[in-house]
Amino acid sequence: MNTVVLGLQWGDEGKGKAIDYLAGNFDVVVRFQGGHNAGHTVYYQGKRVVLHVLPSGIFYPDCLAVIAHGVVVQPLQLIEEIRNARSLGLSLQNLALSANAPLILPFHQQLDIVFEDSRYQRIGTTRRGIGPAYEDVIGRRALFVGDLLQESVFRKKFARLAEYYNRLFAAYGHPAVDSEPAITDYLQAGEFLRPHVCDTTALLQRACHEKKQLLFEGAQGSLLDIHLGTYPFVTSSSTTIAGVFSGTGLSHKSVDHVIGISKAYATRVGEGPFPSELQDDSGRRLRERGKEYGATTGRPRRVGWLDLVALKHAVQVNGVDALFLTKLDVLDDLDEIPVAVAYEVNGVRSEQFPCHADALDLVTPVYRVLPGWQKTLGAMERMNDLPQPLRAYLDFIEEFTGAKISHLSVGGERRQTIETGR
Ligand code: IMP
């Protein structure tokens, strides 16, 4: 069954663990959007490994790992990640990289930083150049992985873009980018990556035709989607189901099943509205228990209660078939667990999620307080082991969102995952 795994909140839902748990059942694992702003944490042979662009499929030698054209690629960073993976004993012969993936160039990262540091626009980005690289795609001036393989083409296109960006930097009083060292580094990177570069759309279409099992690995989360997230405090790609199709070249018929990942509470990094955010000691306790610090930037994450209004929005937008609920063990010691079930604006109650940040800023969440289970979940393996208040909590989430909960994660290890059979 071809399966998509998507984050349903603001990223960091524990997709790395969920995908790693599921990936062994698939022939192909595909990244289709985002870039090295993502940080998917997995444990390999007892070691904590953070993947940024490499698909989780790399850990399985028989699994083809595909970086499709929806992903923006910083080749020097990708090479570093490949080298790290090789130092773990992985060959990476099973890696395919789209020739049509847009490049993240030095200008992009520089512009990301210039904008973040100006008063004009502060999103709290990862400062990796993700937004400006996608802007170039929309602006029809992007360079692609395939360009790295033809020196004269790359040089010509790079020089044209350098002129464009250096004018912008001059306007911001920022020094121009020194092109020649960057060109040399990027061309060398192209040679390193050459054996992996191909037409991934053709590859994936063939895999579908041959009835291979595909797993699509989402990055970030639905509430960071460029169109359907809390705009403008979003990332610059389609993090929802739509990104699978535009980012791979496969049709909707190639997807059989959608798994949405959500934490049992909520977190967010960067700026932007977060109605159920906790600013008090209970928030700090959740952050410490859940080790809520960014896998990519190390930033402390903002923490809050589970927001079912937002979760239902994400379930509907993505057509989620099954929910994979993570980090339940972080709530173990609570006697009461509030969940947001509606928003109030000027005394009017609503269950609709307003995407635009200006509207979301005005809402006050309405909570339903559910009893906590006050038991340690980490060692529990079967549904029958689970305490009654936890089952009631799961029932409530299913009823509210309309999606069945298929998996529960009760700890960082692969074995600390319970299949509910629901
Ligand atoms: P950008 O993707 O670096 O442009 O950042 C835009 C917004 O998305 C910021 O709020 C980031 O903190 C957030 N973001 C990007 N990638 C991730 C991620 O993998 N996890 C959580 N938040 C992310």
- How far is the N terminus from the C terminus? 18 Å
Total count of strands: 18
Beta-strand percentage range: 15-25%
Largest beta sheet: strand ordering: 7-6-5-2-8-1-9-13-17-18
- Give Rg in angstroms: 22 Å
Examine the coordinates and then state which fold CATH places here, giving the name of the CATH topology of the domain at 262-419.
Adenylosuccinate Synthetase, Chain A, domain 3
What is the general shape? globular
The distinct bound ligands, ions and cofactors come out as: inosinic acid
What percent of residues adopt helix (DSSP H or I)? 25-40%
Mean pLDDT: 95
Main CATH class of the domain at 262-419: Alpha Beta
Write the layout of secondary structure elements.
Blueprint: E1 3-7, H1 15-23, E2 28-31, E3 40-44, E4 47-51, E5 64-67, H2 75-87, E6 95-98, H3 106-117, H4 130-138, H5 151-171, H6 179-193, E7 197-198, H7 200-209, E8 214-217, H8 242-248, E9 257-263, E10 266-268, H9 281-289, E11 302-304, E12 306-307, H10 308-318, E13 322-326, E14 336-345, E15 348-350, H11 357-360, E16 364-371, H12 388-401, E17 404-409, E18 417-419
Parallel strand pairs: 1-8, 1-9, 2-5, 2-8, 5-6, 6-7, 9-13, 12-14, 13-17
Antiparallel strand pairs: 3-4, 10-11, 14-15, 14-16, 17-18
Helix pairs in contact: 3-4
The structure holds inosinic acid.
